[in-house]
Design brief:
The protein is an alpha+beta fold and 463 residues long. It folds into four domains: 1-35; 42-150, Immunoglobulin-like, CATH 2.60.40.3880; 157-245, Immunoglobulin-like; 251-436, Glucose Permease (Domain IIA) (Distorted Sandwich), CATH 2.70.70.10. The protein is 19% helix and 41% strand. Strands 20, 23, 25, 26, 27, 29, 31 and 32 form an eight-stranded antiparallel beta sheet that branches. A five-stranded mixed beta sheet has the order 2-8-7-4-5, with no helix packed on it. A four-stranded antiparallel beta sheet has the order 9-11-15-14, covered by helices on one side. The chain is elongated. The termini are far apart. The site of zinc ion (ZN) has 5 residues, from loops.
Length: 463
Amino acid sequence: MMFKKKDKGKRLRKWLFILFCLLVIIPSSWVLYTKLEGEKPVIELTLQSWVVPAVFEVTGFVDDEKSGIKKLWISLLQNGKETILLDEDYSTRGFLQKGTVTRVPIKFNVDAKKMNLSDGAAKLRIAAWDYTWRDWWKGNRSYFEKDIILDTKPPVLSVLSKQHNVANGGSGLVIYKLSEPCSQSGVFVGDEFFPGHSGYYDDQDIHLAFFAIPFDYDKNTDIFIKAFDLAGNHSRSGFYYYIINKKFISDTINISDNFLNWKLPEFQTVDGFPSDKSSKDKFVFINKELRKRNNQSILDNGKKTDSQIFWNNAFGRLPNSARRANFADHRVYKYNGQIVSNAVHMGIDLASVKHAEVPVANRGKVVFLGPVGIYGNLVCIDHGCGLMSIYAHLSRMSVNIDDLVAKGDIIGYTGTSGLAGGDHLHFGMFIDHVFVNPVEWWDASWITNNINGKLETVQSMVQ
Ligand SMILES: [Zn+2]
């Protein structure tokens, strides 16, 4: 009997334990792991910039995988006034269930004028809660705020320089002041953009933009200054200019078999070289396709420019040299008496003695040196604010990348590398990404009238 009684008591305890588990431990573990989980909703927010315009977009999402999202609240706080942008509750299927929504995409526009917001600092505030029972059934809360600046007004653009008489193929300088910091500003000549640079004057809002009028300028081209502020508001301003119509000459070059036999082997390894075609076709490929590619790779160096002016006074030219070809000469190439190709010569050819020393035209920084197809060995010097000079067909180069060179420093020796038929220097200049006529830059009075005079006039205005 005693034995049986003991056995009965043991069984009861076992059942009580199971009952306890069923009624207390399992539900409370479930509550602990599901309804009291501690993972907060994840908030991710994107704005195009922390400085925003009159109408701006807020995008992002809120994520809560485990319990689902209960509530999302977004506001803009400015000068103590809170404007609610979004206040949304999300459903659940029941008290013990998680929320029906685990991810809410955020995408809406804020219209500052409609909401009576004013320019200046504001705080974008976001809070999200999930369907846990934490914080007395309120749920886990995530909070996120972002300081923004509301800027609804476009920058004011004031042109400080006066006369802008520019020849086609020539260079110009315009000086302007912006009313606020801008992400981008500069001169547009049609679709060609020439960025402005600040730093020349103490006032960082004053910008210099060197620009080029293409040699084949069309008089219907729009020329203007455009500026984008940090919020993306932009303004546009015209400036007084007069385009001097410059004519360029045409020239015929006869291509001989001797020349082709000498030059063609150098180009065998070029991408797309028509190895199986005739010498004439090979020449046409080099003169047209490769020339285009090479010009592009030279002009790409414009992006490396520094925002300071390295040079001063007139640029120098190869000493004791004769000019063999001009800027923007239209060249017609004949082979066996027939026209086979044409090109525009984007520099000036200067011939001196064989392997003559090549002095740098003005103070600057070496931004490129190496072979460039038809141009052979080439050195590219940055003179600052987008102005660059190139020295091509060199037999030898005697500078290193990033060297600061003074006017007259020897950067190499003339030669026949590339598509040169005889020892000479091909000297070229460009602004940002457009070749310009170097003759202007050799001319001290042109520099005084068009560049230095302007820089000084503005200097005296801002003092
Ligand atoms: Zn040349």
